[in-house]
Design a protein that fits this description.
Layout: H1 2-26, E1 31-33, E2 44-48, E3 52-57, E4 62-66, H2 75-101, H3 114-147, E5 157-159, H4 161-180, E6 194-195, E7 200-201, E8 207-208, E9 217-218, H5 222-229, H6 232-273
Antiparallel strand pairs: 1-2, 1-5, 2-3, 3-4, 6-9, 7-8
């Protein structure tokens, strides 16, 4: 039950991380204009993202322009694009695989590889979080380094909202993947056709487990089948043997009781006449 709770918590954290990664990938709020020094006019706000650059004016106009070429972009921007897309793909695959392997689902029920499938889904969440953490950290370092450089104030940018969202989503994906990866520690066979062997009493009256039995064994109601297949003849034989056993056991008891009473009476008579 505790493992199922960990799997559910990890799965929901992975879902939130996937949604945050998609938001950070698509929106252009990776870097925003820094209003410092002489650049204190907030009528126009410039924003940069992975796919486009946008301008927001105080009149309410919002204009965006996508990057017209891929080869003309910088190497870090191309790598950030690729890593964020791969992270989103890994997150989607992790959701599908984890759904099949969690204990709360009926998919692959009765298979010994169910827990391993959930662990694979957690590993995919870990990879997705790591792939999104690298470009987000890289871009954050670049923005901070340029902010404290000798560039003009009009060319400096601050950390955008997408970087915060990307950082949080990557951490949630990694945490959720770590919780789901705990399914690898579950080595017990959860197949529907297995039962644990029951103890039986031996000749000393102690309850013992069958020697050489594994942790799980197939459950076959042999006793019920034998009882159902036995006819009235077996029942009559059982009753007759029980009656004969009770008769033989009561006769010596009666004889011993009579002998005890006779000896007591003899002793009384002897002492009475004396």
């Amino acid at each position: 039950m505790a493992l199922a709770g960990l799997e559910l918590m990890g799965f929901f954290l992975g879902i939130f991380g996937m949604l945050g990664t998609l938001v950070a990938t698509l929106l252009p709020y990776w870097a925003t204009s820094a209003f410092i020094g002489p650049n204190i006019v907030t009528a126009v706000v410039n924003m940069k993202g992975l796919w486009m650059e946008c301008v927001y004016q105080s009149t309410g106009a919002f204009q965006c322009e996508t990057y017209n070429t891929i080869l003309g972009l910088t190497i870090d921007l191309q790598a950030a694009r690729a890593m964020m897309v791969i992270s989103s793909i890994f997150s989607v695959l992790a959701c599908v695989v984890s759904t099949m392997g969690m204990q709360c689902t009926t998919c692959m029920n009765g298979s010994s590889a169910k827990s391993k499938v959930a662990g694979v889904g957690g590993s995919l969440f870990l990879l997705a979080g790591l792939m999104s953490l690298i470009p987000v950290s890289w871009k954050t370092h670049e923005v901070v380094q340029n902010f404290y450089s000798t560039l003009p104030a009009s060319l400096k940018f601050e950390i955008g909202d997408c970087l915060y969202v990307g950082m949080a989503s990557s951490l949630m994906s990694m945490l959720g993947g770590g919780l789901l990866s705990a399914s690898f520690c579950d080595d017990s066979d959860r197949s529907g056709g297995t039962r644990h062997p029951y103890p039986y009493p031996d000749h000393t009256g102690m309850w013992r487990m069958p020697a050489g039995t594994p942790h799980s064994m197939p459950f076959h109601p042999v006793t019920l089948q034998k009882a159902a297949n036995s006819g009235p003849a077996n029942k009559n034989q059982t009753l007759n043997s029980h009656n004969s056993t009770s008769t033989h056991s009561t006769v010596p008891a009666l004889d011993s009781r009579k002998s005890t009473q006779h000896n007591a009476a003899a002793g009384y008579d002897a002492t009475g006449y004396v």
